[in-house]
């Protein structure tokens, strides 16, 4: 009985290996269809038998051979639903670089198996340059000269490849595994960098499942590894770098007499997967921007409200704006509210609540503007205009809120009105009026009354000194009143003082390692300083006109470049992946130095 069992096992084993030995030999050349000038790539010649010898590679006319041929060999037996498949990979790999635009032919390579010689079919590779190359490369898959394709690869899939500045792009990093690949887990991943974009990562959850997708007529199991919302911060072509990951796959063990009845045993195999580089073309927004354009890209609505329309002198009022919609909500500038000139205004309080969606950031941005009327009367706070660029129609749209009629009554002159810290960050508490605090009581020392005799020096000085003091007071008062009437001049003079207050707050955030608040306050400080120094409303500030105005003011080229770099760094780092502590320190010092140098610059 034992001898019969041994004979059956031997016959079965021989039948299995004999079927593999008789398997059809396939010899393929694997290469990309399109590459870019200067791009490095590989060409692989793969045969499905270990008995292949005497490999002869082709010449690669039109390409620089960086390395090769490198040998890559491996084999395993996969058993699925009782069907046994031997997987053999015997490959020679060349690493090439495209040097010149054109169409090139890679001749056949040869292997010898026994007495028979096998050859691949010649393949053609197009070398392109410019945007056409990027689009063709992104759309293609790696192809074989015969049948089949890559069984395991990854891609960065972009919802759009041509967008406007600040328009949201959904970037999905997806892994594709052929049906012959038993994917186990991702061991490590180095995802592409998104330099030039503000980045907001999407939450995918921990319960991601493999899905079936068809790519070029072949079924793959796919899984989304990461998803990001990208907001381009500059125009032109922005490159997204390549990435790399290591995955664990399971391969059935080779059949042997000892484990023939243990067919469910698998071996773990590590495989490296490259994530190809790609790019996005970013176009500038069309001309004709309205004056009320607040850098908003997407689709939005706006509403406004006021806490009180009938107040007394020195009582605070608050106007609340709420912007809702989908787009680049975090990056929208605050609309400007034109309060009457006699009102004292404060920095607005901003609250942004968003969630990531495939179309962009969805949610709301609430802005509270606080002001204090100093005099009684009837005032009108005009309607607020808010313009945005609608990506669905590729046009600018302007929304307008209601205006408010405000009645300010005469105060009693005795109350001490205060502005609480939840309205503004200008001061914690500001005393607006004072009355008599106390009357001093107790022992009083009396002194003899001093009398002035007519014609004495004391009598004469008693008239001359007050007259001189009155004249000096009138001159100083008129000069100060003239200066105060020139609001732009006052803002320019106070620009450095206001900037120092904001930088001090940013410095506190720096010490507390609150990175998001630090970059937000730094951005406010620089924009606010440039607005005051150049006498430009915040709503009209853009990088382009700031650069032009700094040049008109008399700033040298290095200082202008420094301010542009500071703005770029703040905008990129504010919502991009975390920056180092050293980078934050350097930014703070650079900003203080730039403002100091600007203060020493004489206006033309």
Q: Unreliable segments (pLDDT under 50, ≥5 consecutive)?
A: 1-22, 141-149, 414-438
Radius of gyration: 37 Å
Fraction of residues in β-strands: 35-45%
pLDDT averaged residue by residue: 77
Helix content: 25-40%
**Main beta sheet strand tally, sense and closure:** 7 strands, mixed
Would you write up a description of this structure?
The protein is an alpha+beta fold. Helix content is 25%, strand content 39%. The chain has eight helices and 32 strands. It has helices at residues 2-21, 131-139, 457-485, 487-511, 515-533, 543-553, 557-575, 581-599, and strands at 27-31, 34-36, 40-47, 52-56, 63-80, 83-98, 102-106, 110-113, 116-119, 123-128, 143-144, 152-158, 162-164, 169-178, 183-190, 197-201, 211-215, 218-232, 236-240, 243-252, 266-275, 278-283, 293-306, 310-312, 317-327, 343-345, 349-357, 360-373, 377-381, 385-390, 395-400, 404-409. Strands 23, 25, 26, 27, 28, 30 and 31 form a seven-stranded mixed sheet that branches. Strand 27 (349-357) and strand 28 form a beta hairpin. Helix 5 (515-533) runs parallel beside helix 8 (581-599). The chain is elongated. Residues 1-22, 141-149 and 414-438 have low confidence and may be disordered.
Summarize this structure briefly.
The chain contains eight helices and 32 strands. It is α+β, with helices and mostly antiparallel strands and 604 residues long.
């Amino acid at each position: 009985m034992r001898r019969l069992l041994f004979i059956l096992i031997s016959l079965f084993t021989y039948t299995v290996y004999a079927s593999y030995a008789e398997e059809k030999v396939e010899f393929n050349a694997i290469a990309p269809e399109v590459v870019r000038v200067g791009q490095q790539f590989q060409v692989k010649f793969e045969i499905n038998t270990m008995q292949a010898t005497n490999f002869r590679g082709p010449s690669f006319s039109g390409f620089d051979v960086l390395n090769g041929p490198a040998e890559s060999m491996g084999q395993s037996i996969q058993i699925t639903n009782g069907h046994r498949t031997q997987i053999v990979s015997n490959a020679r790999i060349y690493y090439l670089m495209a040097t010149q635009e054109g169409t090139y032919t890679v001749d056949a390579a040869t292997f010898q198996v026994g007495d028979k010689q096998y050859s691949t079919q010649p393949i053609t590779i197009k070398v392109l340059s410019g945007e056409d190359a990027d689009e063709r490369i992104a759309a293609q898959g790696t192809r074989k000269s015969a049948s089949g394709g890559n069984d395991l690869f990854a891609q960065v899939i972009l919802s759009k490849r041509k967008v406007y500045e600040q328009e949201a792009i959904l970037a999905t990093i997806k892994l594709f595994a052929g049906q012959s690949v038993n994917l186990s887990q991702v061991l490590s991943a180095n995802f592409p960098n998104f330099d030039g974009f503000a980045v907001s990562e999407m939450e995918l959850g921990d319960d991601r499942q493999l899905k079936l997708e068809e790519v070029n007529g072949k079924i793959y199991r796919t899984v989304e590894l990461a998803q990001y919302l990208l907001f381009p911060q500059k125009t032109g072509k922005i490159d997204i770098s390549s990435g790399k990951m290591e995955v664990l796959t399971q391969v059935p063990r080779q059949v042997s007499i000892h484990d023939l009845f243990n067919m469910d045993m698998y071996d773990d195999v590590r495989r490296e997967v490259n994530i190809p580089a790609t790019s996005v073309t970013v176009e500038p927004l069309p001309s004709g921007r309205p004056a009320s354009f607040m850098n908003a890209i997407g689709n939005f609505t706006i509403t406004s409200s006021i806490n009180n329309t009938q107040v007394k002198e020195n009582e605070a009022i608050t106007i609340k704006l709420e912007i809702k919609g989908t787009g680049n909500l975090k990056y929208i500038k605050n609309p400007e509210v034109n309060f009457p000139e006699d009102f004292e205004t404060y920095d607005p309080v901003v609250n942004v609540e968003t969630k990531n969606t495939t179309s962009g950031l969805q949610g709301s941005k609430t802005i509270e503007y606080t002001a204090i009327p100093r005099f009684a009367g009837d005032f009108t706070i005009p309607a607020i205009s808010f313009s945005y660029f609608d990506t669905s129609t590729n046009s600018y749209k302007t929304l307008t809120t209601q205006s408010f009629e405000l009645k300010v009554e005469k105060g009693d002159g005795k109350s001490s009105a205060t502005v609480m810290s939840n309205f503004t960050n200008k001061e914690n508490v500001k005393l607006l009026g004072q009355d008599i605090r106390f009357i001093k009581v107790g022992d009083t020392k009396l002194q003899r009354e001093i009398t002035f005799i007519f014609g004495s020096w004391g009598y004469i000085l008693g008239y001359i000194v007050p007259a001189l003091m009155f004249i000096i007071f009138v001159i100083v008062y008129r000069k100060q009143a003239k200066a105060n009437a020139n609001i732009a001049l006052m803002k320019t003079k106070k620009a450095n003082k206001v900037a120092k207050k904001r930088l001090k707050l940013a410095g506190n955030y720096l010490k507390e390692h609150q990175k998001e608040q630090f970059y937000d306050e730094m951005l406010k400080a620089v924009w606010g300083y440039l607005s005051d120094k150049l006498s430009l409303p915040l709503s009209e500030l853009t990088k382009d006109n700031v650069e032009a105005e700094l040049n008109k003011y008399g700033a040298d080229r290095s200082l202008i470049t420094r301010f542009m770099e500071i703005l770029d760094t703040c905008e990129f780092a504010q919502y991009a992946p975390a920056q180092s502590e050293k980078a934050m320190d350097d930014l703070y010092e650079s900003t203080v130095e730039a403002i100091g140098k600007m203060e020493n610059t004489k206006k033309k």
